[in-house]
Amino acid sequence: MKHNVSITLEQTLFREIENTRGREKRSNFIEYLITRGLKTYKTEITQQTTRAPTTAIFATLPYSNKRKED
Question: For the chain, how many structural domains are there in total?
Fold first, then answer.
């Protein structure tokens, strides 16, 4: 069963998705990106537990909501 989810995206991220997806349906493409991202996230978390973690994984993501330093 699928669920309807609403998200907001920065304009640059939205444009990047639109330019990359081609003729693929937007919802299918975003679902694919999330699935792929979750697999990567789980792999990185597993690797971090085998060594001493130094930073949160979200601090390394390019589109995080982390406040920019001045």
Answer: 1
- Mind listing the pLDDT tens digit of every residue in the chain (70 residues)? 999 999 999 999 999 999 999 999 999 999 999 999 999 999 988 887 776 555 666 666 666 555 555 4
Sign of CA dihedral 5, 32, 11, 63: positive
Q: Is residue 24 part of a domain?
A: yes
60 C-beta neighbours (distance < 10 Å), count: 10
Q: Which of 4, 30, 37, 34 is nearest to 16 (CA)?
A: 30
DSSP 12-49: HHHHHHHHHHTTS-HHHHHHHHHHHHHHHHHHHHHHHH
Q: Is residue 55 part of a domain?
A: yes
